[in-house]
Amino acid sequence: MKVIYADNGATTRLSDKALAAMAPYFQQVFGNPSSLHSAGQKAAEALVTARESVAKSLNADPKEITFTSGGSEADNQAIRTAAALGKRKCKTHIISTSIEHHAVLHTLKKLEKEGFSVTLLPVEPETGLVTAEQVRAAITDETCLVSVMLANNEIGTIEPVKEIAAVCREKGVLVHTDAVQAVGHIPVDVKDLGVDFLALSGHKFHGPKGVGALYTRRGIPLQSLIEGGAQERNKRAGTENLPAIVGMAAALEECLSSLDETAKAVSAVRDRLIAGLRTIPHCVLNGHETLRLPGNVNFCFEGIEGESLLLLLDDRGVEASSGSACTSGSLDPSHVLLAIGRPHEIAHGSLRLTIDETVTADDADYIVSQVAEVVTYLRGISPVWRDLVKGKTKFITE
Prior knowledge:
Blueprint: E1 4-5, H1 16-22, H2 24-27, H3 38-58, E2 65-68, H4 71-88, E3 93-97, H5 102-113, E4 117-121, H6 132-138, E5 143-147, H7 161-171, E6 174-178, H8 190-193, E7 197-201, E8 212-216, H9 231-234, H10 242-257, H11 259-277, E9 283-285, E10 296-301, H12 306-315, E11 318-319, H13 335-339, H14 344-347, E12 350-354, H15 361-380, H16 383-389
Parallel strand pairs: 1-11, 3-4, 3-5, 5-6, 6-7
Antiparallel strand pairs: 2-8, 7-8, 9-10, 10-12
Helix pairs in contact: 1-10, 3-10, 4-5, 6-7, 11-15, 12-15
């Protein structure tokens, strides 16, 4: 049976180039970068090179890059830093959106318990877009931070962060963006975006798991979350995970070397998937039609339950998800789908397909055929679907 991996939004396969780059740093160049002897200095040189590489990929200065354990830590550190700086100036208001990743939302909830006020902006129904004008209207004299993700992890919508950052600069407010799903898939230039903080994670673009980075604009005193040693310029204690850092830098370089070509090819397969899935009755596309990540496809199917859809697709060799990998064990419907206006009964029947360059047009056709068969089967045994067909309840989708 053919197996098609279509869950790259959760994690990606480590690239051969990244694996090869990492190999020497497990046994050959194994020194601690903080050590003064030769083994340590060789490791320190590799750390410098990797930092320069990641910085170049984002159009940043190497001193603006802090290595972390992943996107969640980077998001936490950025938000915590902005909150601490704001509090010193008696500014304790933070603006974000209702569709952020839980690394952002849960951090904001914790800050609310510490006396901060949080405004979560609603997004446009169906597309999930938030506008710069919404941000402008929400900013007050007490606002210290605006946090808006660059691309949504579930529905793939690309947000107008550049325009939002311009408003924040006018108002003297710091801006953070969770770019975990975006980096390595669409162009990301921190200077062009105008953001103060940007978070990324290596395993989303064929790098290793357990490593990420935080861009912090020069001049902003980054607050440490982990105390101990003097690593990362005293901003993140703990011996650096050098093999993973080197692997992430190599993977990012590789992605950017063919970014436009890859994005074009993946987008074509994505559009083929969307067109095919739309032929299934009573389904709806989630997220913006065109302002969308190249590899993201997200649908809801009325009258079925998403978990059953995933398990049966897995039996047929299609590996997908129903939303964020961080909440895939939850029985609650996606907060993102609810935020874009999907009712609970439809949000429960969601399917997220996140593809990379290895998924072909033929693979897309196979996925569509299998989804169609499984949806038909599940509807055939669903009492909810029977009520819809008999007119006891009304269809919400067309």
